[in-house]
Amino acid sequence: MSDQSARLSLPYIMPAQAQKHVTHNEAVEQLDILVQLTVEAVDGVTPPPAPLEGEAHALGSGASGDWTDHDGDIAVFSNGAWRFVAPQVGWRLFARDVDDLRVWNGTEWGALPQNTDDLNGVGIRTTHDATNRLSVVSKATLLSHDGNGHQLKINKATPTDTGSVLFQSNWSGRAEMGLAGEDDFSFKTSADGANWNTGLRLSATDATLTMPNPIAPAGIHLGGAAPENHLSIYETRSYTPNLIDQSGNSVPLSPVAVEWIRVGSMATFYYGPILDIDTTGLVPSDILALDLPVMPGAFSFGFLELAGPVARPGPFQWTVKPGLAQARTRCTGSAMELTISDFTSGATSIVGGTLSVYVA
User: Fold this and answer.
1) What is the pLDDT of residue 142?
2) Which of these, 73, 123, 269, 277, could form a disulfide with 308 (CB 3.0-4.6 Å)?
3) What is the pLDDT of residue 106?
4) ∠ at Cα 176 (175, 181), nearest 5°?
5) Is the Cα dihedral 118, 123, 127, 129 positive or negative?
6) Tens of pLDDT along 337-355?
7) Could you give the CA distance from residue 90 to residue 105 in angstroms, rounded to a whole number?
8) What is the rounded distance in angstroms from the CA atom of residue 268 to the CA atom of residue 233?
9) What secondary structure letter does DSSP report for 52?
């Protein structure tokens, strides 16, 4: 029969043993060390100069002084001397220096293993709840890559559900971007967290960009307080261009209507036109006037494509600066020339551009 217990090495009182209290007290002292084990520090290597009775330390590698040759042991100051106990795998202690529970894995006092799967929630310096199962109180949150890239995925169940990022002020929503009750991607703002305005929406079908509130008084500012920097006016129209010669006669053509968009007072954008011009009876000196919906005081941009029996029929682009409204195009045998004439547009929104057609 062994004279010690198998696990904690507690001494047994042997049959007919004299001074049984000595063995008993030694076992009690061993239990006093190991039960509810708390140490001042883990990985200690230098004994404190004036330890208190019962003070315990978990020794690290390279212990010195009275701790020499006791790397990894538990050292307890008892009855004026250090007692040492070798830990076994799985023993736990509470370390005051790190304010944490540690477990002996055979080589070091490591953190307790934790199963982080299927948790009800996680709160980092705060508490979680049934809605916010992950709650973080921090100056910043870092999500980095593991190898190459990194994606933050927000998944919703159905198209009418919401998957978005919400920005709050004092716990009240002020801005939101994402899939808010639809599959189109939108940007929204709110002044009170209850009433929301959609500023931009990107179609999930074809990525078309729309501004649901384009005529809001504030509009979109490109910079500065001047009205020309405010894109607060938004309108679209279709315009069928008219082509006349220098004598005022209409020239037969098959036009496609000009689709144009005016955004604020800064710019007008055009789609088209494509003109199939009948040049029968025209001579090289003829000048054709093309009516274009040029907006006064705004930059106008567009393109024109000519078809029919003319040299180098196009396409080409035009740009009309504020205060100018006449674009002149010269078609030659090898190229096209586009010039801008100093013609003040005045107050009207529809003015004439001059198109010079040179017949081959």
Assistant:
1) 96
2) 277
3) 92
4) 145
5) negative
6) 444 443 333 333 333 444 5
7) 6
8) 11
9) P
Distance CA 76, CA 319 (A): 89
- The encoded tokens of residue 350 equal 């529809």
Give Cα separations from 175 to 71, 167, 186, 220 (angstroms).
Answer: 58, 5, 11, 16
288-319 CB burial, b ≥16 within 10 A, e <16: bbbbbbbbbebbbebebebeeebbbbbebebe
Q: Which residues of the chain have pLDDT under 50?
A: 216-217, 311-312, 323-354, 357-360
Q: Residue for token digits 């023993």? A: 91
User: For residue 221, what pLDDT is reported?
Assistant: 57
- Indicate the residue type of 59: L
Cis omega (within 30 of 0) on the bond before 214? no
What gap in Å lies between CA 280 and CA 257, rounded to an integer? 23
What token pair was written down for 12? 């047994």
Question: What is the reported pLDDT for 37?
Answer: 86
Given the structure tokens 């036009």, which residue do they identify? 255
Supply angle C-alpha 134, 135, 137, rounded to 5. 150
